[in-house]
Amino acid sequence: MSALGAFTFVLHSHLPYARLAGRWPHGEEWIHEAACETYIPLLNALYDLRDEGVDYRLTVGITPVLAEQLADPDVLDHLDEYLDDKIARAKQDVLRFRGEEEPVGVPREEAEEGDLPPVDRQAVEAQERLGTTALDDANPDEDELLPPPEPKPWWVGHKHLEYLAGFYQRYYEHIKDSFDRRFNRDLIGAFRQLQDEGLIEITTSAATHGYLPLLGRDSAIRGQLHTGRQSYRRFFGRDPRGIWLPECAYRPAYYDATGTIRPGIEAFLRQEGLQVFFAETHMITGGAPVGVAAGEAIGPYGEIKRRYLIPVSTKPAPEQPLSTFYAYYVSDSTAGPRADQHSGVAVIGRNNETGQRVWSADWGYPGDFDYREFHRKDGISGLQYWRVTGAKVDLGDKDFYHPDWAENKVRMHAQDFAALVERILEARHANGEGYGIIASNYDTELFGHWWFEGVEWLKQVLRLLAQNPKVDLVTASGYIEQHPPQQVIHLPEGSWGAGGTHFTWDNNDTHWMWKPIHEAERRMEHLANAYKDRYDDEAYRGVLNQAARELLLLESSDWPFLVTTGQARQYAIQRFSQHLERFNDLADSVERGQPDGALAARLWERDRLFPDIDYRWWATR
């Protein structure tokens, strides 16, 4: 039988730039954690499926700034060291739970932040080979004079904890072997190979995940997108076709304070040859249909104050609002309210029903009581030995993790999700809605890192759906090419942040950041215009290219996000301030007519990203 519809996972992989920018709790170890808990396990799962002959498809986004870090030799060396340390900690715990190793305690509140004691790996290996600690040949008479031995800690002789420590030892040894041998320390190359074989599509993003709707200059948006495209070409040997807009943030064309038209984001995507992007559910169901579609719709975007070329509709929503089951062409919003012609760029909305199976805090799969608890970590090794246990169980009351229990739940949840996809497609077909797409969009790091069992769940879902004749597994741009959209919509402004607006990135705690960003953007544009004919001058070229890198890093959406959420507030402010200072120092030297090549060289060695950047990309067109 022919398939009833299409399905794709859309996994968005991103981390802020943290190469050589601090270690734990905030810094480069973010990359190490995600690599050994998410990216390498995901590659293992996808290569296992390929080797089984499973004909799967999925869409994997890798932001340019993440790709730069995953390909960096220093980051990869440190990742190997991180894995060695994890293996040593697990081995130490095996001995500790046997009572053969004297623990070095760390207060739990410190351990849970990851400020763990160093592990003497050689001592652990030596003691492991001995198996037990030898007793001294003591004089029996002297023994009678010794005080009675202190009671052993509660964990000594705890067979289940010993088993779990061995479980982690085997886990990290397997990850290290995969990294070093299966993928030859080339994670980006491993993803590229899967794309070259047609199993996955790798989408791009803005260079440093800059929050495009709030950038102050068109040249800044072009710089983010074009730098990202060039980075993609370097790593994957082709042009990208799809893009994950940072934070799913989009805005249409509008008039700025001077009456100048700022083009919609779709215009910049079209210039870069990008065919499709992704939107949050409410941005589709709240979009105003035009062209073939009839009726009007409105989304909850009152907080965003702009004078749009296409006015926000004030009419009530239609009885049948737009559905994320279809892809749509985005109108060329620069043309105004009569923009019935599309921009050539398509949008696919996130399917909420499948998304909630994972995202929901109340009944999403990751909250199952038998899955591993993320937040509680051992006070000595930092390893996670507990399960979720219950909805409102305090961390101190968590039960121990049982991997076999979790494996059973993974099978159940994979079957449930695959059956849900089939039911949705059957219902759409029975309702006469034809062939459409279910796009289930997630942060990649949710799987493996936050939800330890999540990568295995993905693997099993892909296997089940690939066997189902009612479901076509597709990539995003592959679907658009085979099933071009039949409708054109005016997409409203919004994001997948709080309230569907820009609030998470522009609020009372972060508003101060945007003025210096906009000033730096204006300055970069001015310098690019003033010195675009000095590109052959190595002194100016080196300094201005590095200034462009620092501007990109300054614009990262991660800094205001981390300030708003409080996850790493001081670290984010520090990083933001550093990149601003570096940009201004470089710009000052150029404007003095004395470009500081030595400073640019030092900063290049510290950053080492986007080696083929060209400051002229920021010049006015």
Structure, briefly:
The protein has 20 helices and 14 strands.
What do these coordinates show?
This protein is α/β, with parallel strands linked by helices and 621 residues long. It has 20 helices and 14 strands. It has helices spanning 29-52, 64-70, 73-98, 108-111, 121-130, 140-143, 159-182, 187-196, 218-236, 265-271, 281-285, 352-359, 403-430, 454-466, 476-482, 511-530, 538-554, 558-565, 569-591, 597-607; strands at 5-13, 58-62, 200-203, 242-243, 254-255, 261-262, 276-279, 288-290, 307-308, 328-331, 342-349, 437-443, 471-473, 488-490. Strands 4-7-11-10-14-8 form a six-stranded mixed beta sheet. Strands 1, 2, 3, 12 and 13 form a five-stranded parallel beta sheet that branches. A hairpin with a 5-residue loop joins strand 5 (254-255) and strand 6 (261-262). Helix 1 runs parallel beside helix 8, helix 17 packs antiparallel against helix 19 and helix 18 (558-565) runs antiparallel to helix 19. The model is unreliable at 105-117, 132-138 and 288-303 (pLDDT under 50).
Share of helical residues:
40-55%
Q: Supply Rg.
A: 27 Å
User: pLDDT below 50 for ≥5 consecutive residues: which ranges?
Assistant: 105-117, 132-138, 288-303
**Molecular shape:** globular
Beta content comes to: 5-15%
Rounded mean pLDDT is 88
Report the major sheet: 6 strands, mixed
Largest sheet strand order: 4-7-11-10-14-8
Helical stretch count? 20
Secondary structure category = alpha/beta
* Extended strand count: 14
Compute the separation of the termini in Å: 52 Å
